[in-house]
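Lay summary. Proteins are chains of building blocks that fold into shapes, and those shapes determine what they do. In this project we predict the shape from the chain. Here is one chain we studied, written as its sequence of building blocks.
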Amino acid sequence: MALTIDRQANTLTSLSRWNTVGEKIEGVFSRQALPLVWDFCEGNPFSSSTGSYGGALNWVTDVCETESSLKSLDFLERNVGLATATHHFLSDDAAHVLFTDPPYYDAIAYGDLSDFFYVWLRRSILDDYPSLLSTNLVDKNEEIVQLSKRYPRPYSHKTKEWFEIKMEKAMNEARRVLSPDGLGIIVFAHKSTSGWEAMLSAMINAGWTVLASWPIDTEMSSRMNAMGTASLASSIHLVCRPREHPSGEVRTDDVGDWREVLSELPQRIHDWLPRLAQEGVVGADAIFSCLGPALEIYSRYSRVEKASGEQVSLSEYLQEVWAAVSREALGTIFSGDTSSFEEDARLTAMWLWTLTAGANGNGNSKDDQAVEEEDEKALSKSKLSGFVLEFDAARKIAQGIGAHLDKLPHLVEIKGSTARLLPVAARARYLLGKEPDAVPTSRRPQVQQLSFFDELLESGGSEWGEDPEVQLGQTVLDRLHQSMLLFAAGRSEALKRFIVAEGVGRDARFWSLAQALSALYPPGTDEKRWVDGVLARKKG
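And here is the predicted shape, written in a compact code that computers can read:
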């Protein structure tokens, strides 16, 4: 009954809203946050409709009945208790399987959100469980999350270093409890490279060997931030085993040779990435899914050293992993050799591929209308602002394919911790202006970058005169984007002259890049429509 009251709290609140599609109340926690809502609906607990006490009770009892029917687990000794991840009550080698879904670095303030339910549990069953509910609110001091930047006042001590130290202690404790031949599965889903590096570093330092990684659909493909950003559609399940002797002590005398590790890495990625693609796993999901096979090479050793004796850090190795994934992905995108393309084309293709959601999403959530509204806003925003990646991810992608972000100010804009691939419209003045050398810098306001293209659309290109001349771009990508802008402006004759008379269409790379970008640009974007328009004129 206490759990039923907790479930009622999710709908009997001014933060719940009405689902117009399902004609029901949508609870507060449709995502891991307390949202701001402009209008709300409140359930009637004494009714027989949505939000009622009877409905909540049915949900709770259904779970209890389902769990109690798992007869195959009757032979197991059950131990349930309250403990921290860093100090567990189980004895050494007591478990055969570790399955944990640890905090996703700085993504969610779990403890704060749990207070929403904790206060009602405490009111309901404090007398029955005084030791579990002794504090007024959940104790968050030891919660292993990195929140010092988001919430500096209460969580100033929860820094990146603090997260790594605590998570390493937790992973070390988990290894102590697991038998030497046991199996560990650690679930992680975070779109930042810093979050992944912190988690992986803790695991390896605690004596775990990563064997594989599998993406399993757990996230909505159309959730907020899923469009235009490198959000994960899957949670990555890292499969690992303890790197220890039968006595339980961690092996510390295994030293790997850096050259051998690097020589083995490309083949491992080559074997794994196509397999993921066949399963519909692409983009950011595929990159992080390659971590398991890649880390199996690195984490089998207690440390990896160069010929000089210098130890190779995990961060340095992960840069090589990103590079190997980027090269393999580009080979898949262009179906062969990519060395003939300039760095801006390679970077654009890899950037868009990283943002690709793939075919493995779960579809819409139960609140379809709200999701569709969020998608429309996200899509509209992506048209204006370009395609966004975390800066560190963009930097590693660029390094992996031999590109330099600082040398591409007319393609990439960097602001703080994010980087965006400029939309084609924002490149219009640079690509089609009378003075191509007078290029707007990345500091120029976006509205000024777009104004030239807006004028071009309104005037039908009249500022060029009746016979507009376009100076050929320096790279294949520039020339493709020029063609896309001519198509968008309705300048068919100028586009024909550009492709035929100027010889742009005689370059096989032009059409190969157009075909690749057509598959990579998100459906519904201007870029997708424009590049398809150019491709439609190939035969003519």
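What the prediction tells us: The CA atoms of residues 349 and 517 lie 7 Å apart.
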